[in-house]
Design goal:
heterodimer, A: mainly beta, 4-stranded antiparallel β-sheet, globular, B: 6-stranded mixed β-sheet, 5-stranded antiparallel β-sheet
Chain lengths: 114, 109
């Protein structure tokens, strides 16, 4: 069964460093998403991406964040200068299309900023 | 008002019990509704989509009431393996899924 894959599963970084989280969405999906979940809190929307551009982003997704689809398979989230409060689980998701289709989530990257 | 609201629980029920979760959403223009399941420190996994006519998948039944902006999930004959957090998810527009806080379920032997 096709699945969304994310790497790495866990990343530890120092405050102020840049990190890149990687995702390979399901191959025939057209919409891609990043979400984050701080420990003990709800899953929060960061950004959606369609047709090689950002479709929508939340207030959390400020200038420190960027997304890219560098080739036909990868979808990345970059955090330029990490802060302690960026520590969270980051989930990538994809969906086949808009409308009533479901989103499928990767297993997540646990980011720890020290 | 929160966009998607759920009772966080926890709901502690014995094996074999029937348990129901509710969820309300604030945007009357929302079109798509889902229940996901999340195990501790794992990714959300799709449990079922929620259709206007209601739908059933084995022991799980989902209902949608558009007039009241309310979604429900019923689990019959609870198993120990049903212990998880159940997430109500609403698709807002074309490009965003909004999650509720989740309802924790613990099924006791």
């Amino acid at each position: 069964e096709p699945e969304v894959t994310q790497t790495p599963s866990h990343q530890v970084t120092q405050m102020g460093q840049e990190v890149i989280l990687r995702c390979v969405p399901i191959s025939n999906h057209l919409y891609f998403y990043w979400y984050r979940q701080i420990l003990g809190q709800k899953v929060e929307f960061l950004v959606s991406f369609y047709n090689n551009e950002i479709s929508e982003k939340s207030e959390i997704f400020d200038d420190q964040f960027s997304v890219e689809r560098p080739d036909g398979s990868n979808f990345t989230l970059k955090i330029r200068s990490t802060k302690l409060e960026d520590s969270a689980m980051y989930f990538c998701a994809s969906s086949r299309q808009g409308g009533n289709t479901e989103a499928f989530f990767g297993q997540g990257t646990r980011l720890t900023v020290v | 008002r929160k966009e998607v609201e759920q009772d966080p629980g926890p709901f502690n029920v014995p094996e074999g019990a029937t348990v129901a979760f509710n969820c309300t959403y604030s945007n009357s223009a929302s079109q798509s509704f889902f229940w996901y399941r999340q195990d501790c420190r794992k990714e959300p996994k799709l449990l079922m989509s929620v259709y206007s006519s209601g739908n059933e998948d084995g022991r799980f039944t989902a209902q949608l009431n558009r007039a009241s902006q309310y979604i429900s999930l019923l689990i019959r004959d609870s198993k120990l393996s049903d212990s998880a957090t159940y997430l109500c998810v609403v698709r807002s527009g074309t490009y965003k899924y909004i999650f509720g806080t989740g309802t924790r379920l613990k099924v006791l032997a």
